[in-house]
Amino acid sequence: MKQPEAKENPAGRAESTRASDVPEAAPGRKRTRIMIAAGVIALVLAVLGAGYYKEYVAPLRRVVLTVDAQDVRMDYFLKRTKLAGGDSMAQLQSMANELVTKFGAPRYGISVTADDVEKELRGRASSGDKPASDDEFKEWYRQQLNEMGLADRAYRDIVRTSIMTDRMRTYLQERVPTSGEQLHVFGILAPDADMAAQAKKLLDAGRDFAEVAAGFSTDPSAERGGELGWVPRGVLDDETEKIVFGLPVGGVSETVPQQDGVHIYKVTEKAADRKIDDAPLQALKNKALTKWLAEETKQHTVRYYYDSDTYAWINAKLAKGKPETTTPTPGG
Question: Among 10, 92, 113, 319, which residue carries the largest CB count within 10 Å?
C-alpha cells in the first residue's frame, strides 16, 4: 500500500496527513451538546404548551356554577348555552334550577329511572303515532349527539332532569288550592308618572273610578271600568300584593310604578274563602314551580362563579360559533 506523502514543516520534520491523525471530539462532549439541544427544545415546547393550556384548556375547566357538591364546568356550560340559543345569563340560572330540582324533587317521592329516559327518547325519535324501529332510533340518537356535541351520559342527564322538572311541576300544580282569600280589584294603567298623577288627583277629588279608567288607562280593562276581577293571593308580584291586600274595601292605592307603566288599584269587595276563577287559577299553577324553586333554592348551597370578564369571554366564544369542549359532562 502506498504511504501518504510527507511534507516538511519549517523545522524540517515530516507531518503525516493520515485521517487517523485528525483530532476527534470526545464522545462525552457530543452527548452534552445533544442533551443541551434536547433540553432547549423541551423548554420551548413546555412554554408553548403552557401558553396553549392557559389560553385554550384552563378556561374550559373553570367551574362556573356549584349547587351543593355538583360543579358545572365552563366547557359543558358553553355547550348548553349554545344549544339554548346563546343567552348565558338565562342559561346559568336555568342550570341552577335544574340541579336544585334534581336534588330537591326526590324528597317529594319524585324520581326518574333509566327506563323513563329511554321511553322519552324513543318518543322523541318517533314520527307521529308510529314508533321508531331500533335502527331508526339508533340513527336518530346518533344524529342528536353529533348535532349537540354531547356525550351519551350528558344528554341522558338533560333528558332525565327535564322529566323530573315536568313531574315536579305537575305535582305542585295538582296541589294549588282552588279556593282562598280574594279581592275584587279594579285598576288603572297609566303610561307614565304624570298621567298617573293626574288620574290620582281626579280620584282623590271624588271622580268615579270607571270614568277615570276610561280616560286614562291603557289596559284593556278600561272598557270594563278598570275591572280586573277577583284576585287571590299569589297572582300579583309580592310588592303589589302587599299594597293591594292592605287596602280596605273602597280604598284606592297610591300610584305604583311597574315595568309596563304606573298602576292605581281599587278594592271593592273582599272574600275570606272564594272559589278561584279559571284564569287566576291557571296563573297560580303557572307560577307554582317558580315559587317552589325560590323556596327550595334556600335549602341548597348555590354558588355562581360569574363576573363581567367571564360574561365577555363566553360571548366571544359563542360568537365563534363552536365552543370547544374537553369533557362534555355536567360534573367535570
Answer: 92
